[in-house]
Predict the 3D structure of the following.
Amino acid sequence: MEIVSEKTPRKSRIAALLVFLIHQVIATGIVYLTARLPLALAADLLWPVGVRFPQSSLILVSPPYFTLQIIWALFLGWSLSGYLRHRSMLWVWVVPTLMFCYVFIQYPTSPALFQDRAFLSSSSPLSHFFGRDCQPRKFCFDQLFLTLPFYTAAAYSLGAWWARKMSWLSNYAEAMNDINMPRACLVGTVLVCVDLGSTWRFLAHSRVAQSWIGVVGVLWAEAMMFALSTYIFMVVISLIGRRFFLTRWFLNQGSPAVDVETKEQS
């Protein structure tokens, strides 16, 4: 019995560490890799009605703004915390913040990443890490690898904290558990088909798509689009609850999940 009691806390600590690391990866790496997809998804949804996003909209994902990454991290932190309620999500900002503060204080003693190729013209650490002096086209990647994780991890933790303050999200969590996954995946499949339908001509004439690396890249992008669109749809359905017949169709019948209005009436 003593051996079991000693192993159980150790396993729980290991599990807690793994959960924290997963959220750390989501808050920094996954947000960075998928931040453009919400913009692409919105473009695909508006494409049939003739709405086009201007090329200047890409500035939302470029340094020194990172607007879309911050909003995306805030949404992921809020939506995942409302469902999972992992306390470790509140602390993913610590490591990126410590790393950023150390390099920021040490600048310019602490060299830039790939400094041997970087063309630096920063007059101060503020302009280097928050301004336009450090750009990837100048082979300066400090904002991508230091400032951006600092932004997204802080936004992710802020979203998680915000979700924990909303008691009504318990209904949302119940509905997320009652999602009918095959039906929800149908929506993701349809949106992927729409995306392929809007880009197949470009892909057919693209030299990149004709190589095996290009094919793998396209498959990866479409898989991420499928996962992203399905997840956003699940969040929307869970927030709406059983108010409408269409949303009830995506929730398992006979489940205990009810919406806010039903609870208030009872």
Remarks:
- Residues 257-266 have pLDDT under 50 and may be disordered.
